[in-house]
C-alpha cells in the first residue's frame, strides 16, 4: 500500500488534451520536415543534423550520474550525492548519516545525466520529501528534451529555501526522487536522506 501512495505522489501533472508525439529514431528526426525552420532549430538544439546516425544502442537510454544540492553558502559551494556507485549499502549508510543542510539557506537541485541512443522528450524530475512519514515538500521540474551525445548534460532547477526552526531540525527528511518522461517511462527512481541543522 505504501508503495502505491508513493507512486501516486510521484506521478507528474498532466495537461488536459496533451498527447505525446510518436517516438522516432535519431535518423528519422534528422530527415523529418527538412524545410521547417522551427523544427530545424529544435533538432539543432538536440544535436541532430542531416548526417545524424542512429546513436549507440549499447548505451542505456538515460544514465543518471549525480544529483547535487547547490548553495553558495555550503562548504565548497555544493553538497553532492553521486549516484554512479550508490549501492543499497551506501543508501542505507546515508540513512544513518544523512546529508546536512543549513537551515534557511537558499539552494537548488541539479542533476547530471547522459542520453544514449534515442532522443528523450518531455523529461521531468520529481521528488517528494517526507518527515516522520508526512509529506512536507514536493518538487516537479521540467528537464526538457535531449538527444544522444557523449558528454553529460547538467540541469539546474529553481532556487528554493531550506526550512528553519526547531521543527525543521527535528529529524531526518526522506526524499524519493524520480526521472520520468511524458509517456510515463521511469528512467531513475531512488531514495536519499538529508537533515536540517543550524550549520553545515
Automatic annotation (TrEMBL):
What GO biological process, any one, is recorded here? Rho protein signal transduction
- Report the principal subcellular site: cytoplasm
Where is this protein found? Cytoplasm
Q: Which keywords does the record carry?
A: Cytoplasm
Any one GO molecular-function label of the UniProt entry: Rho GDP-dissociation inhibitor activity
Which parts of this chain are annotated as the region Disordered?
Answer: 1-22
Instruction: Identify the GO cellular component terms for this protein.
Output: cytosol; membrane
Pfam families per record: Rho_GDI
Gene3D superfamilies linked:
Coagulation Factor XIII, subunit A, domain 1
UniProt lists compositionally biased (Basic and acidic residues) regions at 1-11
Q: Does the keyword Cytoplasm apply?
A: yes
> What does this chain do?
Regulates the GDP/GTP exchange reaction of the Rho proteins by inhibiting the dissociation of GDP from them, and the subsequent binding of GTP to them.
- Family label: Belongs to the Rho GDI family.
The record's section on PANTHER family has: LD16419P, RHO GDP-DISSOCIATION INHIBITOR
Write down what this protein is called: Rho GDP-dissociation inhibitor
Amino acid at each position: 500500500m505504501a508503495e502505491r501512495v508513493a507512486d501516486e505522489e510521484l506521478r507528474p501533472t498532466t495537461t488536459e488534451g496533451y498527447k505525446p508525439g510518436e517516438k522516432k529514431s535519431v535518423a528519422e528526426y534528422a530527415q523529418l520536415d527538412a524545410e521547417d525552420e522551427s523544427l530545424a532549430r529544435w533538432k539543432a538544439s538536440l544535436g541532430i543534423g542531416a548526417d545524424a546516425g542512429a546513436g549507440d544502442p549499447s548505451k542505456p537510454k538515460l544514465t543518471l550520474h549525480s544529483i547535487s544540492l547547490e548553495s553558495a553558502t555550503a562548504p565548497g559551494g555544493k553538497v553532492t550525492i553521486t549516484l554512479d556507485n550508490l549501492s543499497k549499502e551506501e543508501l542505507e549508510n546515508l540513512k544513518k548519516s544523512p546529508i546536512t543542510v543549513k537551515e534557511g539557506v537558499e539552494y537548488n537541485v541539479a542533476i547530471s545525466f547522459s542520453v544514449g541512443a534515442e532522443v528523450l522528450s518531455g523529461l521531468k524530475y520529481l521528488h517528494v520529501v517526507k518527515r516522520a512519514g508526512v509529506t512536507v515538500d514536493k518538487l516537479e521540474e521540467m528537464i526538457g528534451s535531449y538527444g544522444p551525445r557523449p558528454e553529460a548534460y547538467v540541469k539546474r532547477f529553481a532556487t528554493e529555501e531550506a526550512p528553519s526552526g526547531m521543527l525543521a531540525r527535528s529529524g531526518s527528511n526522506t526524499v524519493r526522487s524520480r526521472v520520468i518522461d511524458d509517456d510515463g517511462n521511469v528512467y531513475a527512481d531512488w531514495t536519499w536522506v538529508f537533515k536540517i541543522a543550524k550549520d553545515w
